[in-house]
Design goal:
The protein is an all-alpha fold and about 475 residues long. Helices cover about 70% and strands about 0% of the residues. α2 packs parallel to α4. About 40% of the residues are buried.
């Protein structure tokens, strides 16, 4: 639904009528679709999911079997992480199984159950029942958008090719998203900017643009695009999350934490906000608070099991910083239940030991990780980073030199750490040489590792010239 509908006279009049009836404790005589428009408004524009659900419950009582309230209720269950059986219990009450929203959510469940081909076939059958509808083009774009949401760009493109009106704004929006997902950022962003030139009041355009800018590491522009979307709708959870992620990448952890907190209020059922709020607090050395939010993330992720390995890894780092070695190791053990790499987790176990001055135990885990990985350069790199992070700079220096002397020319990781070791050991020639290589090969790593060696706001491309100038 277009964002500007919720600010239209038609909708505001409908909302006023509903709220007056609600105050009087009497049912509002409006259609089931109108009820769900109001529910959508409370959910997406007021950030009040509880109120939205009450509206849907009222509509279900007034209009049993009507598709819109039941599908809305089913979708809320899905967002909360309820089982698909629970979600289907609501869908089974729908009278009109040819209703498009019913079809879309049914197909979405199939996709989440890895039945993608089955979902595609089902949607083809649904579409055939709506051939020659006046909104046929929109149906095509709806289905393409659904597959795009789940990363099936090729299927989405197959659907878009069925559309006749290539100049339609909805078509162009989905095409832009497909281009961005395929890494064709410039083309996708050009399409979105063209759409925004025509209508700058559509938050989905701004959100897609922010996502593209973020993916190509243009964090400042991504934040700006998110701010436009937030200005249109302060309760747009996607925009708030995009801004939080951009701020985090720029190292603005205080403000990022503020926006992750806003996201948590908008989507309290989602563990992602708690996870990255915890990560921000780790970066701010506020470990007790981080522990609290990461444990909350675990509780919220129990239904869906999403991000569990990452949550437990961050919780392990936190418990380690708090000196809770046994709790940290227990968290590392749990990561492997959710697919974490065993060798990487042995590095993490070694890191916990080293951070807590259990050097012999750390060496045992590090050696095991390197040996069992077949001397993987990536694993050796992770060990060296842990040694560096724990302050063993001379040893880390030797390890990074050993690693980087044995890798191919296309290897990009570790040079910033070697530069940092050289700087701290006052080996000026090495510092300049490795700094130059680090910035050329991996500016993102250079910023992450070396930013503290330069004035705030200095960009990686300027590190070498600054270093040369200040050594004179």
């Amino acid at each position: 639904m277009a964002d500007n509908y919720f600010s239209s006279k038609q909708f505001l009049s409908l909302l006023k009528e509903y709220e007056q009836c609600e105050k009087q404790g009497i049912p509002c005589i409006i259609s089931s679709d109108d009820y769900i428009d109001i529910a959508e408004y409370y959910d997406t524009h007021q950030g009040d999911t509880e109120h939205a659900e009450r509206v849907a419950d009222t509509a279900i009582k007034l209009y049993p079997g009507a598709p819109a309230p039941l599908v809305f209720k089913a979708r809320l269950c899905m967002l909360r992480g309820d089982s698909f059986d629970q979600v289907r219990q609501w869908l089974e009450q729908v009278d009109d199984t040819n209703d498009l929203d019913f079809c879309y959510l049914t197909a979405e469940i199939m996709i989440q159950e890895d039945k993608v081909d089955e979902a595609n076939l089902y949607l083809r059958e649904c579409f055939e029942k709506h051939l020659n509808d006046e909104d046929e083009e929109d149906i095509i774009c709806d289905i393409a958008s659904l597959f795009c949401d789940y990363g099936y760009e090729e299927i989405a493109m197959e659907w878009l090719q069925m559309a006749d009106d290539k100049d339609d704004s909805y078509y162009q929006e989905i095409m832009a998203r497909i281009l961005i997902a395929k890494g064709e950022y410039e083309k996708g962003e050009n399409m979105l900017n063209h759409l925004l030139d025509s209508n700058p009041f559509v938050s989905t355009y701004w959100n897609s643009l922010a996502t593209s800018q973020y993916q190509r590491n243009n964090y400042q522009d991504s934040i700006l695009s998110s701010e436009y979307s937030i200005a249109l709708n302060p309760h747009d959870d996607e925009a708030v999350l995009n801004k939080a992620n951009g701020l985090y990448q720029l190292g603005n952890f205080e403000e990022a934490a503020h926006y992750y907190q806003r996201y948590i209020k908008l989507r309290p059922e989602d563990e992602y906000g708690e996870l990255f709020l915890g990560v921000c607090l780790i970066c701010l050395n506020r470990y007790v608070e981080a522990e609290e939010h990461l444990k909350s993330a675990v509780r919220k992720a129990e239904k869906t099991k999403h991000n569990m390995a990452e949550i437990y890894q961050e919780l392990a780092f936190t418990e380690s910083r708090l000196g809770k070695v046994d709790d940290a190791l227990a968290c590392v053990d749990k990561t492997e239940d959710f697919g974490a790499d065993h060798n990487e987790m042995n590095v993490l176990r070694g890191h916990v030991m080293l951070e807590n001055h259990l050097v012999d135990e750390a060496q045992t885990y590090f050696s095991k990780a390197v040996r069992e990985s077949g001397s993987s350069p990536q694993i050796f790199l992770r060990v060296a980073v842990s040694v560096y992070d724990n302050g063993y700079v001379p040893l880390a220096h030797k390890m990074f030199r050993m690693l980087l002397n044995g890798v191919d020319d296309d290897w990009t990781e570790g040079y910033s750490y070697l530069a940092a070791c050289s700087y701290m050991e006052k080996k000026d020639d090495e510092w300049l040489s490795y700094l130059k290589t680090a910035v050329e090969k991996n500016p993102a790593e250079a910023k992450n590792v070396l930013a503290d060696f330069f004035p705030e706001g200095t960009e990686p491309q300027d590190y070498y010239s600054y270093a040369i100038e200040n050594m004179k």
